[in-house]
Design brief:
2 copies of one chain form a homodimer. The first copy, chain A, has about 375 residues and is of the alpha/beta class. Chain A contains 15 helices and 17 strands. Chains A and B meet through helix 3, strand 5, helix 4, strand 9 and strand 10 of A and helix 3, strand 5, helix 4, strand 9 and strand 10 of B.
Chain lengths: ~375, ~375
């Protein structure tokens, strides 16, 4: 098996040498880090020590909210993973395997999904009945280990997530050599890639003054149909619910590199609040990515608990809160980044008092284009949002 | 309330008259049909008869497979819905309400989601505590009733579905006035709109010789990254699982108007078979749309049960069938359009005998680009597919 594998690798290497792409600087750096991870094994062994990896702890206990930077960060705790330890040897081997798979991807200039990587690396270890991985769920946390260990985003390891979300607006960008004019994308829009790192996506001309990010594709279609982005000179995105990594990273880059304010039009419910929280402060599970994903200055321009009265909405559009909604709302009110914000506390308290939630779509009961012609323009004019 | 409503309607009419768009021929026809539906009430009343609607029956008993056309069709059974019948008066009123909402959308040249229409029409009937609709699930079947009654696709009633799926390839099209060159869409692709009727999407230049439709966004990314569509001069689409209406209708138009064969690259599992079945013959639930959605000549180029041996795949990529898989596989084998196809019977029998399924992603265990450089090109060269 070992022999066979070497042969296969050699064949693959020969096959790809000719067309091996020139590596971008960022890719060279990631390769260096991956090679460094492997070199550690050798150097530790030479010093007659047990090879090990100190992997930053990915648990709630090692996550904290950085009040100055205003996003979630990982702490400094690590767990040592030893090769010569019966309970850790397998995950040690898996970590090295993931590292080697990612190196292969980067060298070939290719990307794959986390499911693809799982299939790439899954095999039965010769002479045993042991598989390197049984399920994808064995492989996913190891990928996250490698990410935090190297301090690399998944995208830099050439792994892509599922692709969701679209964009239109006054922005031109270059996507792997193709010039994309987001102001000429019709009703379909530009599908936001899952890898939007600067090596793949370069911003060109941008006339837009802000980004309006909406929760759902159906609401995005309303705004695009009404050409909101043209009238208000902005960029319009959606993430089909909780935005995937590509969308979050793109919003982060639009904000940081082009200096565009990000407005989030979300539902008046705990799920909408939570989406905002993730866009703004990062997700608790993936705290180590916050630095390149979170947008602490993102603004919430979504439906508010007071809108029921303010917009004179019909009682028929109210959706009763259930137990889970109430529980989630209280949890969110307790997040460190909402805890000291009076406006947010008031917002969440009023939703609990109302005992109902409101969807953006419900504004259609006023008029088909009420949301694009009145609701959002009024909030922008009055600077009436939460942050 | 009645008065108030009239006033609101009038206001809306005045507001939109100025910018009311010139209606496309298809829209004028749909309006005529909607008006005809309403006129029936008046003319029936004048003849001193009970107003009623004869709505084609949307149930399995009224669905049949047309062996000549090779897709699922509705039969001729109808259910009569009477205004003066206590158990039917509400759904009669709801049917008229949906018709009136769609007319309003078409006249204003706007589209909305089925959730949007539900919110548009939901209100408490004055003087009662009765709502026109309680839940969206009350409204959705009524929309389908109106569709079958008028013989209009949902899209012609100006209702859009959620938007999923992307496209790249050697095709230029016009989307609501914007020229989209699908060969210059980078890694992101063109987001397939949910409404792709000829009034919105016009095909321009097409050099492509066929369409490769893949099941998942992650597989699509592999094919796009490897520029498969450029090498093989084709169009590449995906539908993020079971393709939404917009994707199915677009494939149907590409096939019928541009004469392009449609190849479907799906997983070797009952879900993959089922997706193919829906693309090919239409869905049983929405049989009345088959005529404009189904593609009887679509070809299955997905993973086959024999591929485990043929491609010499590692045992580690097999996924055991569960009870539900076996049940679904037998059901699908019994579909009238698979029943008499020897190759399909053999395919499904072999999967049951194997007792495992295979995903397209598993081919990465051979090589990262095995699927784009070998698997699909070989099948195309050998004309080795199922239909």
């Amino acid at each position: 098996m070992a022999k066979k594998k070497v042969r296969r690798k050699k064949a693959a290497a020969t096959k790809t040498t000719a067309k091996r792409p020139r590596l971008e600087q960022r890719d060279r750096k990631t390769i260096q880090e991956l090679v460094g991870m492997a070199d550690q094994v050798v150097s530790t062994a030479r010093r007659r020590r047990d090879p090990h990896l100190d992997i930053p702890t990915r648990s709630l206990s090692n996550v904290k909210f950085n009040r100055r930077k205003r996003f979630i960060e990982m702490g400094n705790n690590t767990n040592r993973r030893l090769l010569f330890n019966l309970s850790q040897a397998k995950s040690y081997m898996q970590t090295m395997l993931v590292g080697s798979g990612c190196k292969q991807l980067i060298e070939q200039g290719k990307n794959t999904s986390i499911r693809g990587l799982y299939y790439m690396l899954k095999h039965t270890i010769e002479g045993t009945k042991e598989n390197t991985f049984e399920e994808q769920s064995d492989c996913d946390p190891i990928i996250e280990d490698v990410e935090v260990f190297l301090g690399s985003l998944r995208e830099e390891l050439h792994l892509y997530a599922d692709k969701r979300g679209e964009m239109v607006g006054n922005l031109q960008l270059e996507d792997n050599g193709d010039l994309i004019d987001c102001s000429r994308m019709g009703s379909g829009g530009y599908g936001i890639p899952s890898i939007v790192e600067p090596s793949a996506i370069k911003f060109k001309k941008c006339r837009a003054k802000f980004v309006l990010h909406v929760e759902k594709g159906t609401v995005w279609q309303r705004f695009n149909e009404d050409k909101f982005w043209r009238k208000h000179n902005c960029i319009l995105t959606h993430g089909a619910g909780q935005p995937p990594r590509g969308v979050r990273r793109l919003l982060n880059r639009l904000h940081n590199e082009l200096d565009l304010p990000i407005f989030c039009l979300l539902d008046n419910d705990p799920w909408g609040y939570y989406i905002y929280s993730v866009i703004k402060q990062g997700s608790i599970n993936l705290a180590y990515e916050s630095q390149r994903m979170a947008i602490p200055k993102a603004r919430y321009i979504g439906l508010r608990s007071k809108d029921y009265e303010r917009c004179n909405l019909s009682p028929s559009v109210r959706i009763d809160l259930n137990d889970n909604d109430r529980k989630r709302a209280r949890q969110i009110a307790g997040y460190p980044w909402f805890e000291h914000k009076k406006a947010w506390q008031k917002e969440i308290a009023l939703m609990l008092k109302n005992n109902f939630k409101l969807e953006v779509e419900s504004l259609i009961s006023k008029d088909i284009s009420y949301v694009t012609e009145q609701y959002v323009p009024d909030r922008l004019t009055d600077k009436d949002w939460l942050d």
